[in-house]
Amino acid sequence: MHTPVTVIGAGLGGLTLARVLHVHGIPATVYEADPSPSARTQGGMLDIHDYNGQLAVEAAGLMDEFHAIVLEGRQAMRVLDRDGTVLFEEADDGTGGRPEVMRGELRQMLIDSLPAGTVRWGHKVTGTRALGEGRHEVAFADGTTVTAGLLVGADGAWSRVRPLLSAATPEYSGTSVVETYLYDADTRHPAAAKAVGGGSMIAPSPGRQFFAHRESGDTLHIYVALAEPLDWFAAIDFTDPESATARIAAEFADWAPELTVLITDTDTAPVLRPHYALPTDHRWDRVPGVTLLGDAAHLAIPNGEGANLAMLDGAELGRAIAARPDDIEAALTEYEQVMFPRSAEIAASEDAEIHRVDSEANTAQGLIDMFFEKGQ
């Protein structure tokens, strides 16, 4: 391999790329801002799809390890109306194509599959610059730098690598979620546990939405989505958990109590997470020696595909490099020509539209209709 691969970001996409390269005997170094793998919570449950995310796992040679971390029964799904009526319910019979895993366990699986030292922890990128002839310099907060022959930005929404390729920046989508947790739900929060069921629950309405997962350890992970401008959320003091919780709950005053307890009975302080997105058709002209994957390339409102696409990006980029180790520009061109239209199509799809909380299509019946149209 004549072009060492430098990956910025040890998320699912960057780690998948490093793993697929390793499978093909190509070394890579991954630089990550976090000081360690356990430095922060890695998020909740992910459904890994058989048509994209699992293809990446297979390319990484980790299907057995993946099956070992799947949470049984979590593909169950129910849709509730705002009055608590269950309008749709689907059990998990073990044959579905979207098994659920914990994001942190999936990430650790990928980390464990790499040679020791592949990931360099505690390396926060402060800037990047072109050096010419396809080479780029990456500067870190500790004052050190590294020169990359091939630089891959897998560093998420606020990528420090993206400016080498594109002037695009994420814009607020108009929707934010407030994240809460309920622990020991079956014994301590039985009404909420019954409403959520054994897997995922969604109670959609234009401008407002509950989405909840039953994670490992009898934990309910809740995302309360509201279509409001950032100034609206800025008026809420999230440093005062009690008042912030009460303010959010007030927006659901006429909803069923078994749903509102997902906010009012929270065992954690509510956390605000605004949703940002890049333009749906975001792309760039080929720049020698650098490319992007995952949210750095195609950040979209949450639609169930983000992690899957990041992993597939990493796998396909890794295979393209392995197929053309002596012609990296051809490999990058091949990868981008597939990645651009795929991510744009998913971001503009009907599935993405139903995930828009501010959409008139965001209703319980609209979601159910979509399920039946797709044969789910």
From TrEMBL:
Requisite cofactors: FAD
Domain of life: Bacteria
Top EC class for this record: oxidoreductase
UniProt cross-references to Pfam families, sorted A to Z: FAD_binding_3
GO CC term, one of those recorded: cytoplasm
This protein's UniProt keywords: Cytoplasm, FAD, Flavoprotein, Monooxygenase, NADP, Nucleotide-binding, Oxidoreductase
Domain FAD-binding: 3-324
Gene3D superfamilies, A to Z: FAD/NAD(P)-binding domain (3.50.50.60)
Function as written in the Swiss-Prot or TrEMBL entry: An FAD-requiring monooxygenase active on some tetracycline antibiotic derivatives, which leads to their inactivation. Hydroxylates carbon 11a of tetracycline and some analogs.
Entry remark concerning the domains of this protein: Consists of an N-terminal FAD-binding domain with a Rossman fold and a C-terminal substrate-binding domain.
Family membership noted in the UniProt record: Belongs to the aromatic-ring hydroxylase family. TetX subfamily.
Name listed for the protein in its UniProt record: Flavin-dependent monooxygenase
Organism: Streptomyces chartreusis
